[in-house]
Amino acid sequence: MRPEEKLFDAVTGIDEEIVDSAQTYVFRKQTRPWQRAASLAACLLIVASIGFGILQMASIGGMGGSDSAANGSAADNSATGDSAAPEDGGLSGGAGDQESADGGGQESAGEPVTFTATVLEVGDGYLLVEPVEGDEMLSTADRILVDTGGADLPDGVAEGAVVEITFDGMVRESYPAQISGVTEILLAGE
After folding, report:
1. CA distance to 29, 96, 144, 146, 148, per residue, from 124 (Å)
2. What is the assigned CATH class of domain 66-187?
3. What is the pLDDT of residue 181?
């Protein structure tokens, strides 16, 4: 050993063979099978969550489908002043259709529906109302925009008044919900 090497060994206290072996050491990757399974499970959870979200949007009416076609034709009819019922004879809407099928919801379009509500706003050709507590219509929507084009408003209809509204039974999915085909608006108690 040369004097420089002896000095290096004395100062560092490290043998050169140890340094050489450290430079040529190959790290072995430890396999962890649970990491692969956890990664796969996380990916599947993300895909399932996205799929569930898309299905929820479709059931609400955010995407196309048979309900949106019925809603589109109802909107076209209301723009021309017609208030025809959808071909299936039910309410145009997701939750309302299910309630009608169960027998616990609103009557189908074509059959008059009457509900009681408090007037929140009176506008030119419309009323914004809130169904009173205990009325079946409250399960459909908490606020309803009523197109008053086909009905005469009685005297005394103002904000805070309680009215009984009779319409064709068709409710459009929106917020607030919309109804047209109104045949009669009365002050409650008349």
Report:
1. 75, 28, 15, 11, 9
2. mainly beta
3. 83
Which residues does residue 129 pair with via DSSP β-bridges, in sequence order?
Answer: 119, 144
Q: Which of 125, 116, 124 is nearest to 162 (CA)?
A: 116
Instruction: Report in angstroms the alpha-carbon separations of 112 from 68, 137, 167, 181, 189.
Output: 23, 13, 6, 9, 19
In this prediction, residue 60 has a pLDDT band, given cuts at 50, 70 and 90, of confident
Q: Where in the chain is the domain with CATH 2.40.50.140?
A: 66-187
